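Action item from last week, closing it out:
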Amino acid sequence: MHVFWHKGYEATSMEDLLTAMNLNRGSLYATFGDKRELFLKAMDRYCTGVGIGSRISILSQPGPALPLIRQFINVMLEFGLSDPLRRGCMITNTVMELASHEKDIARKLAGRLQMAEEAFFTLLTRAKHEGELSKDKNPRALARVLVTMMQGTIVMIKAGTPATVVRETSAAALAILD
């Protein structure tokens, strides 16, 4: 997973994978199939163990909704900023690299982003019903903006944007909730 996350699918060679996993070629193929199948398994692991899926439970906690959204965004942001390799998000990286020619992978990753949108939407709807969010705000549109902002912020992190600028940009984007 870490090799794909750092190098991307296309730039990762079988030798890179064999070295990282300390396997011989036959064992890798027998256990995981080909490079593509291994990549899909690595992506699943990332999504459930490292990426957004591992932190999405923040959005289902009780209490005021808008602080939970801010907490979630800040946790994701700090996770990205704390990575000395600035790998960004494996989902975002893969969409940028493969979506134009790997439609099944693109659909799968769009589903992961949809999961985040739905979690934001549910929480924003709750915030609106509880009076935390202005009645004129559209929870669906805001949920989409938050996913877009989160992914864009991750691209900024990967591009080496200074942490202060990333945090400032995120805070300005989160102002749409006020």
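Closing note: The radius of gyration is 18 Å.
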